[in-house]
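User: Sequence in, structure out. Go.
Assistant: Echoing your sequence, followed by the C-alpha cells.
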Amino acid sequence: MKTKIIATIFSLLALPSVALCQEVTDTIVNVPAESKIVITENPNGTLFTVTPVDAVYGEEESLLVKYPENASVSSRQTSFRSIFGHGIEIGGCCRDNGYWSIIADGICIGLNRANGQGSPDAMQWSKSFELSWLSCIGVSYSYKAFAVSLGFGFDWRNYRCTTSDLRLVVNEERGITWQPYADGERGRMSRLKTFALQFPLLCQVRIPGTSLTVKGGPIMCVNTYASVKSVYDDPDGNKCEEFAKGIGIRKVTLDLLGNVSLNGGIGLYVRYSPMKVMKSPGINFRPLTVGVSIGF
C-alpha cells in the first residue's frame, strides 16, 4: 500500500513537467497554393518571403523572425513545391523565370470508337477499350500557371465486335476485312488489338480561382504491333480460336488529346486521330477515345 501511495505522488509531480514540454504550434505565415518560398538567414534573424505563382492568390508576403540577443540558433531548411495538375514529379530544378522537372504522367482508361469503319454495328464502342500510360518518363517546364511537357509512354487499344455473324480476317495485302462465319459456327467475339510507343507534347494551364487543370496537345504514336483474334464455336459446340498478326498498320500516326482534371487527380479526356489506322486495303477508320484520366 505504501508503494502505491509513493508511485501516485511521483506521477502527480510529473504532470506539470510534461505540460511544460509540450509545444504549442502556431502559424507564422500563410502559404497559398503553389508558391515559391525564399528563406534568408542572417545574424539578426530569419526572413521568410512567399511569392505566389498565380497572382490570384495575392501579393508577395514577408516575415522576419528575430533572434533573441546572445541566442545560440540552429536551423534546418526544407523545401516543397506543389505539383497539383502536373502528374508525379520525380525531380526538379527551380529558376527565377521557371521550373524544370522530370515527371511521370498518369493513366488513361477509355472507350474506343472506330470512326469511318463502314458499318456502325461492326466494331462496338461499348466493347472496345484503351489503356494508356501517357508518360512513364518526361520533362516539364513550368512558369506560373502554365506548363509544357514532352514525354514517353505506351498505348494499348482494343477494337472489339461481339456480333454473331461477322469476324475479322487478314487479306492477302495484310489489310483486314469482315467475313461471315461458316454454316453452323456461332461467333463469340472478334477483335483488333494495337500497341504503340507514344511521345506526347502537351501544354497545361491551371484555371485561376479553381482546382481545374486543362491539358492538351499532339501525341506522336509509333505503332509497333497489331493482331486480329476471333473466338467462335464450331458446329459441334467446341470453342475455336483464330489468330493473326503482321497486319499492315501505319507505323507513325498523330493523335490529339484534351484533358480536364481536378487537382491533377481524376479527370476526363478525349483523344482523336485525324489519321487512319491501316495503310493496307480493307477496313479502315480513325480512332476516337473518350474516358477517365488518373494522375495528370
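User: And one key feature?
Assistant: The longest helix spans residues 2-21.
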